[in-house]
Amino acid sequence: MQPKFAVLSCALVALVLQSAAAIAQSRGNPSDPATAVPATRYSSAFAGYQPLGDEKIAPWREINDEVARVGGHLGIFRNQTSGSPPAATGGHAGHHPGAAK
Fold first, then answer.
1. What are residue 65's phi and psi, to 5 degrees?
2. What letter would DSSP give residue 29?
3. What confidence tens digit (pLDDT) does each residue in 19-73 have?
4. What ranges in 1-101 are assigned the alpha helix state H?
5. Is the pTM of this model over 0.85?
6. How is residue 15 annotated by DSSP?
7. Whole-angstrom distance between the N-terminal and C-terminal Cα of the chain?
8. Contact 71, 78 (CB under 8 A)
9. What's the rounded Cα separation, in Å, for the pair 72 and 76?
């Protein structure tokens, strides 16, 4: 089994080297100034850019009043009927020491 593998490996390496040599010859010599090169094309990175429109900015006093009404930043997550935070159902509940995992 070893000799067959060695022969196949050598044949494969020879094929790859032959293909690489053919590709190198088709490209021409890079140090030859007469070698033809493909034309370059310029395309701007901003060609398809579309600026965003201006967003309507909410009045900051009204936003602050709303946050205060619901009980601060954590109040947003509270149940509006009971005023207590929702039960932990995954998410960050497993990060606390002693939490069931």
1. -65, -40
2. -
3. 766 666 667 777 888 888 889 999 999 999 998 888 888 899 998 898 888 888 7
4. 2-27, 60-69
5. no
6. H
7. 53
8. yes
9. 7
| pLDDT number for residue 68 | 86
State both tokens at 95: 């990060």
| Amino acid at position 26, single letter | S
Cβ atoms of 84 and 78 closer than 8 Å: yes
Tokens representing 3? Answer: 């000799």
Tokens 């593998």 belong to 5
| CB contact at 8 A, 86 and 77 | yes
| Cα–Cα distance measured from residue 20 to residue 65, given in angstroms and rounded to the nearest whole number | 71
pLDDT at 35: 82
CA 87 to CA 23: how far, in whole Å? 66
Residue among 88, 70, 72 nearest 80 (CA):
70
| CA 13 centroid distance within chain | 37
Only one residue has tokens 């050598």, namely 10
